[in-house]
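[step 3/7] inverse_fold.run input=structure_tokens len=609
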């Protein structure tokens, strides 16, 4: 398309080419820009006006030449316009409907978005609640285990709670359970303390029951030792060679190993160490072993102090005071030794020995204080029996018995003094009440009794004896022989069961016999030599001769009875020589009396009748 001027000539400067109406603005814009820049805007406007007029003229010409077609086109165009208006109205309605639907859809979409967010929040809250419930369930499970007294499982549950739940949550600062985990984490030490206190409460209950059963445990242990004694005596009866081996010796233990007996677990008594093991395990897991050992040692020392009474009664008829004390100490010490064997790192040998020595020293102090009031040798022998049973029982558990053995020596010295005092009084009474006449025997039975207790050899066979008969010594001799034999037996009774100082018994017995025979028998007889009755002096001489024989027999008897630890060689009693020397004194006294009688007879013969 060319723009032309009014005169019909093309515009000299502007040419616009347009292939379609839609391209027209694209071509018009450069023309407008050029006209503006070249200041030809009026000329361009004039050209455009001319172009518009020309186009109107063309339309008018076409309308005049083709009127019907034009009208028909206008009608159709009008119809199209009406359809277009109708269509536009429908489009507007549709647009309004779409807008309404879009608004509704937008609302639904907003609601859906809100619902999705809420659902996500609910899901997050559910997950957070589920994780929190897991944490709380683990915590409650730990507390429930404590209530059921499963302390180690409770402690393990707390550890799992920390490692599996709390630590991962606390490491994530944005975790929803962070605050809950922090609160529970801070409560873990208190929960561990609760477990520790609960297990210590159970342990203290166990320790109280153990203390209450200590005496019964000691009684069971003593009974078991007594049974071992009986079995050993039976074996010695069957084989005398076994008499060389005492209780708790290797040979005795081997011989008795076929009899199984657990003092801590039997029909009468069962000691369960589970509370102790559990408490130790818990404190080990908490890293508090040193504190637990210290508290346990303190508690046991306190229980030891409660075990010991202020005094013991040795003169009571039931004799339970000392035995109860020793049974309680034995039970306590057995528990200590059993604990040390089961848990070596809890109770050291030094701690156990210290407690043992402390209890032994206290028992010895109490017994020594009470012994001062004892004046009966039989009571002391019973006391020694209790202590010997106690010593043999505890020696079997590996305890040192040196302190108790030393105390038995002290007890033996007291026992020997009481025996000497009692038999000294008996000898004095026998000597003072004797009739100093040859002893008359009325029957064979009476004769055999006297011969069996006396050191006397009859030259004449029993079959040739005629009763009644007379023995050369007076009645005091067999009575003293009976007392001497009883005195020997009483001394050796002390060595029964347990006494590791047999040489002391041998030496003390020798000295005591010498003292009794010299001071209570020989000296008493010598004092009666001042009598003016010749028959009595002669009887004293005969008695002294038989006592000399008795002393010689006693020397042989003591040699045979003395222990292997005593010094070898011959044994001499000073009383033997004393009786021998005083025989001469008696003979001299007889000569004095005879000479006195002769002098009296001579004086009578010289009398002037």
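[step 3/7] decode complete -> sequence:
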């Amino acid at each position: 398309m060319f723009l032309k001027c009014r005169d019909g000539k093309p515009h000299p400067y502007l040419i616009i080419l347009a292939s379609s109406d839609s391209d027209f603005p694209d071509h018009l814009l450069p023309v407008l820009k050029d006209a503006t820049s070249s200041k030809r805007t009026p000329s361009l406007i004039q050209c455009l006006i001319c172009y518009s007029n020309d186009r109107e003229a063309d339309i008018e010409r076409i309308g005049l030449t083709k009127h019907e077609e034009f009208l028909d086109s206008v009608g159709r165009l009008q119809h199209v316009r009406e359809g277009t208006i109708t269509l536009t109205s429908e489009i507007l309605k549709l647009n309004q409907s779409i807008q309404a639907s879009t608004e509704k859809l937008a609302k639904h979409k907003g609601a859906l978005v809100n619902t999705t967010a809420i659902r996500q929040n609910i899901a997050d809250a559910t997950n957070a609640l589920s994780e929190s419930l897991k944490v709380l369930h683990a915590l409650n499970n730990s507390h429930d285990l404590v209530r059921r007294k499963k302390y180690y499982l409770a402690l393990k549950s707390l550890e799992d709670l920390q490692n599996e739940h709390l630590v991962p949550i606390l490491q994530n600062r944005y975790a929803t359970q962070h605050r809950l985990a922090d609160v529970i984490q801070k409560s873990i030490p208190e929960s561990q303390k609760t477990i520790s206190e609960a297990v210590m409460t159970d342990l203290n209950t166990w320790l109280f029951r153990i203390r209450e059963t200590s005496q019964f445990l000691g009684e069971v242990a003593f009974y078991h030792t007594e049974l071992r004694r009986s079995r050993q005596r039976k074996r010695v009866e069957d084989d005398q060679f076994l008499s060389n081996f005492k209780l708790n010796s290797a040979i005795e233990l081997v011989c008795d190993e076929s009899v199984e007996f657990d003092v801590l677990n039997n029909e009468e008594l069962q000691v369960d160490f589970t509370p102790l093991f559990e408490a130790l395990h818990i404190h080990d897991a908490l890293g508090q072993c040193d504190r637990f050992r210290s508290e346990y040692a303190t508690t046991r020392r306190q229980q030891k102090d409660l075990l010991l009474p202020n005094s013991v009664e040795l003169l009571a008829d039931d004799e339970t005071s000392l035995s109860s004390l020793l049974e309680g100490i034995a039970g306590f010490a057995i528990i200590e030794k059993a604990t040390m064997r089961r848990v070596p790192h809890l109770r050291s040998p030094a701690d156990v020995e210290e407690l043992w020595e402390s209890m032994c020293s206290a028992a010895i102090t109490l017994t020594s204080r009470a012994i001062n009031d004892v004046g009966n040798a039989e009571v002391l022998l019973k006391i020694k029996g209790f202590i010997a049973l106690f010593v043999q029982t505890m020696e079997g558990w590996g305890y040192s018995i040196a302190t108790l053995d030393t105390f038995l020596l002290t007890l033996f010295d007291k026992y020997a003094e009481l025996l000497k005092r009692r038999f000294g009084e008996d000898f004095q009474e026998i000597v003072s009440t004797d009739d100093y006449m040859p002893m008359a025997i009325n029957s064979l039975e009476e004769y055999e009794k006297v011969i069996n207790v006396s050191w006397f050899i009859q030259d004449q066979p029993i079959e040739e004896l005629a009763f009644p008969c007379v023995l050369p010594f007076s009645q005091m001799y067999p009575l003293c022989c009976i007392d001497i034999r009883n005195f020997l037996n009483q001394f050796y009774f002390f060595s029964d069961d347990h006494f590791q100082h047999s040489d002391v018994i041998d030496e003390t017995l020798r000295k005591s016999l010498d003292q009794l025979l010299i001071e209570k028998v020989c000296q008493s007889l010598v004092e009666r030599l001042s009598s003016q009755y010749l028959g009595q002096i002669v009887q004293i001489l005969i008695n002294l001769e038989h006592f000399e024989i008795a002393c010689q027999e006693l020397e042989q008897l003591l040699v045979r009875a003395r222990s292997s630890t005593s010094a070898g060689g011959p044994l001499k009693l000073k009383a033997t020589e004393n009786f021998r020397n005083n025989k001469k004194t008696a003979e001299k006294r007889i000569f004095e009396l005879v000479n006195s009688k002769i002098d009296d007879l001579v004086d009578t013969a010289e009398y002037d009748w």
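[step 4/7] annotate
The first strand starts at residue 439 and ends at 441.
The radius of gyration is 65 Å.
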